[in-house]
Write a structure and sequence with these properties.
single chain; 14 helices; about 425 residues; two-stranded antiparallel sheet; mainly alpha; 5 strands; about 65% helix; three-stranded antiparallel beta sheet
């Protein structure tokens, strides 16, 4: 007889849904705090322009600084609804349409360079505009890559049961898809997203049966690509040198990192209080987007920062557990891809804020301001939720565990197994 084994019945979908809502709520609160000075300044600028042009409407508008907060709250509500709807769909539907998703992503990435459709900001072409709405296609390209790679890996799994793994037949098509997306995104330019795509692809390939010798070569090629991309652009070299010694250029390339470190350091254990941090007042640029974690550290302290990091870590653990438990291999690949996508961006963003990585424009998932990022992440989580549902109601699960779950008897059941 073997020992009694404790088989916990974990409602993965409930955990993932709850964690996503908590992180999104934190994001809405800190977007309001971090963006208020920017919003107020924009409203004052618009008021001044209207006054100068004589187009001031009756009754001067009040300057409340909630513009970005209202937008983020609206995107949050829309994204949560979309996540819920996506979670109700059969996950295989997305796999079946993965090629269509990839084609749409490529088409949208091309549109960013089309005049009057693409939107340029600070020399970067990363958005397409539809009236007041702007979308960043690279955010959705991550999902397309995950779904298409999962479909490719699943097909390879069936083929390699009878024949040897081939570099040209099995791996080359995956590399081609990745390079196509990277080529379109690197010229925007957006090196950070390219790195995230590479990490996602490598993670999925690693568990998808790609031989180790090929993976080692791909790592070397990826590192070489990043080095070449950094050397090719002077501003990236300046960021790298500023990361190594930000005090050498405190008003230039090292400005963002130094002010981020000041914000993180002055937060102490419990922080200055939500809304009370001074760094957002002209000191720390883009603090409601790329550097929002710095504001979290400043206003909620070390305790708040640890809570946010722990929430993301828990999300990653639950997501990987979904991948471990789900029976269908194609869904396993998707679960890994989505979890790695969220985890890489989250810990990459936080590492930049505390000076562990060079400054790069990575949004903090669910928290940073930005409708495209929030919507894309919610869609990805919705797909992960639908896969998690496969675990709770899998026909291969232990009957006693399923009966206990149906009765609401608890989340842990002891099941005796004998030889």
């Amino acid at each position: 007889m073997t020992d009694l084994t404790l088989l916990p019945i974990r409602n993965h979908a409930k955990w993932l849904f709850t964690l996503t809502l908590i992180l999104t709520g934190i994001g809405v609160v800190f977007v309001l705090s971090a963006s208020a000075p920017y919003a107020a300044r924009d409203e004052m600028r618009m008021f001044t322009v209207s006054l100068r042009d004589g187009s001031l409407p009756d009754g001067a508008p009040s300057v409340h600084g909630a513009k970005f907060f209202i937008r983020q709250l609206g995107w949050a509500l829309i994204s949560i609804f979309v996540m819920w709807r996506v979670s109700l769909l059969e996950p295989s539907i997305h796999i079946d349409h993965s090629r269509l998703y990839l084609m749409l992503s490529v088409f949208m990435l091309v549109l960013v360079f089309v005049p009057h459709i693409g939107v340029e900001r600070n020399g970067a072409h990363r958005w397409i505009g539809f009236g007041p709405i702007q979308i960043q296609p690279s955010e959705f390209a991550k999902i397309a890559l995950i779904l298409h790679s999962a479909a490719q890996l699943s097909q390879d799994e069936r083929e390699t049961m009878w024949k040897k793994y081939s570099l040209f037949r099995h791996l080359a098509p995956k590399i081609a898809v990745l390079l196509m997306l990277v080529a379109l995104i690197i010229v925007e330019p957006d090196l950070g997203t390219c790195v995230v795509l590479g990490v996602i692809a490598f993670s999925m390939w690693a568990i998808g049966g790609v031989p180790l010798r090929y993976l080692a070569g791909l790592v070397l090629m990826g590192v070489g690509f990043v080095v070449a991309a950094v050397v090719a652009e002077p501003y990236r070299m300046r960021r790298l040198f500023a990361f190594m010694d930000p005090e050498k250029d405190p008003l230039g390339a090292g400005y963002h990192l130094l002010n981020s470190l000041i914000a993180v350091g002055t937060g102490g254990l419990t922080g200055r209080g939500i809304g009370q941090g001074p760094s957002k007042y002209l000191f720390l640029s883009e603090c409601h987007t790329d550097f929002i974690f710095s504001i979290i550290c400043e206003e909620s302290g070390f305790i708040g920062a640890i809570i946010v990091a722990a929430l993301f870590l828990l999300f990653v653990i639950v997501g990987l557990d979904v991948a471990k438990r789900v029976n269908d291999s194609v869904h396993k690949y998707v679960a890994v891809g989505v979890t790695v996508m969220i985890g890489t961006q989250a810990f990459g963003n936080m590492a930049v804020a505390v000076g562990l990585l060079p400054t790069k424009g990575l949004a903090l998932p669910f928290i940073s301001y930005g409708g495209s990022s929030l919507l894309a992440n919610m869609i990805a989580v919705g797909i992960l939720l639908s896969i998690a549902g496969k675990i709770e109601y899998s026909p291969n699960s232990d009957e006693k565990a399923l009966d206990a779950y149906a009765r609401g008897a608890g989340h842990s059941v002891k099941i005796a197994k004998g030889v």
